[in-house]
Amino acid sequence: MTMTTGSEVALSGQVLLIDRDGSSARVIGASLRESMLVTPEVTVVEAGRAAAELLRQTRFDVVIADLSSLLDLATSVEDAVTRLVKLAEGALLLAVADGSSVSAALGAMRAGAHDYVAKPIDGTALAARIGELAQRHGRPRSLGAECGTGPVVADYAGFVGASSAMQFLYEQIGRVATSSAPVFITGESGTGKDVCAEALHAKGPRADRRFVAINCAAIPRDLMESELFGVTRGAFTGAHEDRKGATELADGGTLFLDEIGEMDLSLQSKLLRFLQTGAISRVGETAARKVDVRVICATNRNPMQMIAERQFREDLFYRLHVLPIHLPPLRQRPTDIMVLARHFLGRYAREEHKSFVGFAPDAAQQLTAADWPGNVRQLQNLIRRMVVMFDGGEISAGMLSAADIESQVSFPAPVEAPRSEGKRPVLPMWQQEQRIIEDAIAAYGGNISMAAAALEISPSTIYRKRQGWAEMAAAS
């Protein structure tokens, strides 16, 4: 089997499973064979040394490694994973461990593992996770969950996009929506996490009941508990009547907790208790009330990083991280840029009662060449601003540049400024740094740990800087 890097890599379904628990390995292997688009050839070994010998002889698309089975390969889990990453030559590597071993998971990800999965493992969910990681790290959907061979969908439950990344997302939403298990949505700012949550509700069996969203970052800390669980009359100054919280209001339906990572740690423990018992108590009362809700949460931050920095409870993470969904940034699906641009142009032209006839070739080229750090939201704002500023006709590059007040760097100017004395234009330091880091991540197929090692910085530095860039884009 041959394997190349980049978007043209051909995955043939070779999976290496390292697990000393034979019964667990058989169950996982059978589930993967039933769930993957390409029926995989699953090779099972019981220990790290046997896996290393096999990796020297055979190329694999995916390596699933139980961390407790690797200690014959090196004295620490981190060193063992480092050796596997080098031998795997670009394969997706998933670390598997007992749910209580977050330190081992963090070590594995520092060493280059693409993700961490806690036991017990659901094979179908694991197949979906592999497909999600393959898409995120620049590989096609060949190893994704089975999604059929139907027509390409360009508009789905509020989402617009026809790329393979979006086709996989639509299929994943369709599967996950039928369950009542918690969903953990991740993705950069502007990728549509709220749209995803509403789609999961609309496509599921609770669609006829209420969808209640609460932004954990927008509500003051001292009011968050009453907003979430409700309050009884007289519980504190200003509480003049009994009031239901978001959890009760969503009874029978869906509760969406956006920016879950911003929730105070003390309230996280109360949320965990609710998830464990299905019962809540309003602020100021002792009686428990049974509530039936499906919980969906979202964050634009790295959850494992939040756990490492003690900003997010480990036990709460495992309660919520049952069905993960990752939304790809716009820069990873460039074929959707013009689909989205035309969609927004048509919508806002109708709203403003104006007539536009599409995009000139130079305008389309500029749109597809832009980096879009603010993702779909940034593109949407730009098109709406342009429709308001101009009267109609064909969209030119000059019109787009005139409407772009957010970032002249992420959206190239139509005409290059003249250079004085033959000197190259100099970008600000933070923009050069961003380009270097993103290029390194792309060079290592999206693996932040390996990119960080190549740049001789820590992965946490990359996560922190990317978060800062996202916040700058959101604030602009």
Automatic annotation (TrEMBL):
Protein name: Luminescence regulatory protein LuxO
Domain of life where this protein originates: Bacteria
Keywords: Activator, ATP-binding, DNA-binding, Nucleotide-binding, Phosphoprotein, Transcription, Transcription regulation, Two-component regulatory system
Positions bearing 4-aspartylphosphate: D66
Source species of the chain: Devosia equisanguinis
Residue stretches making up the Sigma-54 factor interaction domain: 159-388
PROSITE patterns in the cross-refs: RESPONSE_REGULATORY, SIGMA54_INTERACT_3, SIGMA54_INTERACT_4
Entry-linked SUPFAM superfamilies: CheY-like (SSF52172), Homeodomain-like (SSF46689), P-loop containing nucleoside triphosphate hydrolases (SSF52540)
Biological processes annotated in GO: phosphorelay signal transduction system; regulation of DNA-templated transcription
